[in-house]
């Protein structure tokens, strides 16, 4: 630091130069440093000699060069003081944000600058912007979910009427009646519509699955195995599981669907060409200080990723993919509900989903779920069903005919009950075995090939004798009545009658409990 200073002043200045926490420098108009203080090496990791050998272009981030050049031009032109920001490359390859306050001495073709590392501030700011964007995004998705969920709910009731009446009409005519074929078509279309409604409800606001502890690796593995048989030729599907245990609080069926939806998209992204899909599971520590993916709170997470070498997506597409009914596929190839369901399911598990993509190169979807081990009290937490129980009574409806099941589901819900349906009587018995106290009443069809309604009543009685069972059947013979009475079945109701009849029996039994 030359000039007209005495030796003592000079030494004091040098000492300040050495001690400064901010980076101080003298640089030439040629873009090379003449002097740097030790703060530079501390911040960027380069030695003083290395720094002096670099031109500014070797260090400044390519995206910041234009702005830095503009600042330089202003200084060369004699602007007394110029403030600007740019990123500098560190020795370890990372970049740090620097804030410059520079002034020139044009006659000497020299710039003096005080430079501060503002990386931490920048990260905080970036984090805040990301959080805000995500919040807006999730509010928008929530609003759409509420809307779609509301429509789906009404739609379910309409569908129940269509399907219920079709079933009754089919029962009322001879099998060779000319209308039979058309009724079957109506029935099939109605069932497909029911499927769609179920998917819509999966991401609607009120969706809250019952979670229990499961191995995520096993769920992902089974979903990937389910994908394999239908994999088009030329597409390699690779599974990468970490060594450690990965347990999450999950609804396995829904998570299975998440993986299947992501894999189907990945396969579709190949557009008929050969390619590779990689599915992986790993454990991940999200540190409060470091960059937090998807704006998640710090903690221990599981990450599932699905990466493809497909067509990729541009920014504007990426911004819309989680919206319900957003699709770029041809009619009949997709309805745009896959990723909305993924978003809904993952959110209901306390996790988050994000995607990154490069057009032409491929995409990667990341699903983050909190590890079950990091939630020590989760298993003792009151079960969702306990809370619901105190408010509404829980009816289990069992019928192997899905049409009737959908109809009864809608009618019982309309009557104010919480309803769980099973088309497989054995699955229904398992549900009771898992949580005997969760149900208040069972209604079962009689004529089911896997297990009759009476068989089911007997099984249930062995698990919980005081759980009332009602048989709902199209054909009630005297022997059924006798056997039902012997097993302690509380009611036998004819399916052909109106719902009011069944409703009255259910209400009477529940009132007497
Ligand atoms: N892996 C992927 N690669 C490229 N585009 C994708 C990928 N996953 C999803 N997309 C885009 O997101 C859209 C929405 O996906 P999704 O919600 O699953 O509905 P659908 O598959 O029925 O279109 C797709 O139409 C597609 O444009
Ligand atoms: Mg899809």
TrEMBL record:
InterPro entries: CheY-like_superfamily, HATPase_C_sf, HATPase_dom, His_kinase_dom, HisK_dim/P_dom, HisK_dim/P_sf, PAC, PAS
Coiled-coil stretches noted in the UniProt entry, renumbered to this chain: none
Domain Response regulatory: 394-510
Ranges where the Histidine kinase domain occurs: 150-373
Catalytic activity: ATP + protein L-histidine = ADP + protein N-phospho-L-histidine
Record-listed 4-aspartylphosphate modification sites: 445
Domain PAS: 9-79
Any Pfam family matching the protein: HisKA
Keyword annotations: Phosphoprotein
EC number: 2.7.13.3
A GO term for molecular function: phosphorelay sensor kinase activity
Top class in the EC scheme: transferase
Name of the protein: histidine kinase
Lineage start: Bacteria, Pseudomonadati, Pseudomonadota, Betaproteobacteria, Burkholderiales
